[in-house]
Amino acid sequence: MAPPPTLPPLPQAFRFVLGHETQALVRTVRPTDLPYFVSGYARLSSESRHLRFFSQASELSAKQLDFLTHPDHRGHEAWGALDMKYAEPIGIGVARYIAMPERPGVAEVALTVIDAYQRIGAGSLLHACLHLSASRQGYRSFYYDVLWENSGFLRYLKSLGGKVVGSEAEVANIEMPIYGSSIEVPQRDGTAMRFARLMHDVVTATSIDA
Question: Which of 20, 25, 27, 133 could bridge to 13 as Cys pair (CB 3.0-4.6 Å)?
Answer without folding.
Answer: 27
